[in-house]
Please model this.
Amino acid sequence: MKRFNFDLESVLLLRKYREQEAELALGKEVGELNRIEKNIADVAAEKSRSIAERFSLGYSVSEMRVFDLYTQRLNWMTERLLADAAKAELRVEAARKAYIEAEREREVLDKVKEEETRAHRKQGLAEEAESLDDVSTTVFIRNVG
Model:
């Protein structure tokens, strides 16, 4: 039986490469979103700490005003980070769609390759069976004659 050769192997390799690239891009975008979400959590923790500190005893009015301004800045940072997170979520969704599409394109070629491999094996087994039939027929004729 001759060796199986998939005619679209180079296309399959290209699609696997594109899928890997899309997966890496998705990972990068998810990582960025996680970084932004961590920053949001850090700012929230700092805001809680600052507010608790503000209400501690022993601060003057001007020091309390500084805490208020700092809290306003943290609120502004939170709003900015939330906007960044919304944009990052859109990028993650776009990267996820690109990955799913690349994966689907690769899977189509994988299925074609599997079908062609099955057909090749079936044809090879049929040729082998035919060859064995010819050999057994030849041996039978020699033994009879």
